[in-house]
């Protein structure tokens, strides 16, 4: 059975207009995901009758996202020892810019709901993936890879626990050859590990419902990590009727290349995707391949080195200082160094 899933990636900013830094970060992230750029992007108002947006409407992109039709290749470790890397690809439907909304805080003791507007109006980047993943671990692997890419690009620190990156998962089940089933949305999952658990639980829950003659409802759910299961949310956002109208207060965001850039344009005031593409840093997949080829380490060890910020650089510095065999150094890093850091709740950058 297949899983329908959508990822929502949040990138915090302190304004809702088109700052040059935010425009460049959108373009960099889009190009790294091999998306096709739209030459002209227009903002729209999404009219939502809800209390979590002070203005009463949300600025978003509906008809013209900044980039479309991309892909993300990620490696999924399989096998009894999780030492076999299988490369898979998920299609990226689009990347778009929109405003974040506030969040509801339900107080069961006092039987009231509070509204936290601290993040309302902050600009976020939303990445929408196609339903190409079939289990929770595949989805978690794709999110981890995307997290590493965004961190390498400098467009997002990617700390899910702090809400810098949030994931919504749309999940449905169906028999092979049948159309996609009715989907449920599990919102605001804050770790890749919980994402895998939430999806796998929801897959089995929907299968059990259908096997017992029930009906899967299109609803919004959340993942209770203590119970290890998804539960219905109180506000059924899927039932709201959204209306989109053009946003007149923001100018169009235009992406250029070398051929289309105006002759007298200030390079600091335009987004030139060819210049951005030329200056992209080494991405995680390329770094893993280089480590395997250059130092002769195992592919699964390259995943460990790339997965934590600064670990690759530390590995290389130890090699240069000690002149030891790479296989001995990687063994020490994985078995002793990482265990020691975990024991003292430290990261490589804090060593």
From TrEMBL:
Residues 1-22 are annotated as: Disordered. InterPro entries: Asn/Gln-tRNA_amidoTrfase_suB/E (IPR017959), Asn/Gln-tRNA_Trfase_suB/E_cat (IPR006075), Asn/Gln_tRNA_amidoTrase-B-like (IPR003789), Gln_synth/guanido_kin_cat_dom (IPR014746). The keyword RNA-binding does not apply. One of its GO terms (biological process) is glutaminyl-tRNAGln biosynthesis via transamidation. Signal peptide: none annotated. One of its GO terms (cellular component) is glutamyl-tRNA(Gln) amidotransferase complex. GO terms for molecular function: ATP binding; glutaminyl-tRNA synthase (glutamine-hydrolyzing) activity. Keywords: ATP-binding, Ligase, Nucleotide-binding, Protein biosynthesis. Residues 55-257 form the Aspartyl/Glutamyl-tRNA(Gln) amidotransferase subunit B/E catalytic domain. It catalyses: L-glutamyl-tRNA(Gln) + L-glutamine + ATP + H2O = L-glutaminyl-tRNA(Gln) + L-glutamate + ADP + phosphate + H(+). PANTHER family: GLUTAMYL-TRNA GLN AMIDOTRANSFERASE SUBUNIT B MITOCHONDRIAL AND PROKARYOTIC PET112-RELATED, GLUTAMYL-TRNA(GLN) AMIDOTRANSFERASE SUBUNIT B, MITOCHONDRIAL. This is GATB amidotransferase.
């Amino acid at each position: 059975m297949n899983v329908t899933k959508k990822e929502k990636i949040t990138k915090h900013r302190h304004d809702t207009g088109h700052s040059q830094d935010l425009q460049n970060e959108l373009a960099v992230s889009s190009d790294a995901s091999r998306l096709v750029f739209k030459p002209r992007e227009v903002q729209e108002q999404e009219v939502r009758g809800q209390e979590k947006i002070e203005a009463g409407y949300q600025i978003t992109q509906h008809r013209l996202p900044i980039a479309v039709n991309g892909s993300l290749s990620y490696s999924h470790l399989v096998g009894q020892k999780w030492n076999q890397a299988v490369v898979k690809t998920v299609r990226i439907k689009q990347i778009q810019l929109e405003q974040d909304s506030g969040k509801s805080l339900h107080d069961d003791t006092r039987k009231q709901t509070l509204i936290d507007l601290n993040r309302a109006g902050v600009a976020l980047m939303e990445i929408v993936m196609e339903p190409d993943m079939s289990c929770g671990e595949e989805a978690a692997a794709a999110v981890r890879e995307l997290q590493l890419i965004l961190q390498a690009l400098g467009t997002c620190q990617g700390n899910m626990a702090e809400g810098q990156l949030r994931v919504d998962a749309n999940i449905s089940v169906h028999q092979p050859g049948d159309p996609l089933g009715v989907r449920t949305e599990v919102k605001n999952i804050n770790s890749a590990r919980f994402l895998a658990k939430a999806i796998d639980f929801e897959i089995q829950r929907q299968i059990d419902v259908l096997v017992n003659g029930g009906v899967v409802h299109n609803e919004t759910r959340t993942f209770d990590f203590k119970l290890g299961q998804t539960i219905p949310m109180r506000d059924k956002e899927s039932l709201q009727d959204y209306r989109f109208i053009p946003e007149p207060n923001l100018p169009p965001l235009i992406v250029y290349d070398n051929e289309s850039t105006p002759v007298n344009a200030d390079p600091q005031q335009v987004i030139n995707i060819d210049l951005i593409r030329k200056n992209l840093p080494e991405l995680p997949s390329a770094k893993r391949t280089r480590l395997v080829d250059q130092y002769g380490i195992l592919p699964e060890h390259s995943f460990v080195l790339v997965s934590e910020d600064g670990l690759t650089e530390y590995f290389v510095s130890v090699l240069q200082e000690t002149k030891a065999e790479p296989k001995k150094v990687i063994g020490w890093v994985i078995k002793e160094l990482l265990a020691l850091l975990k024991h003292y709740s430290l990261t490589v950058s804090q060593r």
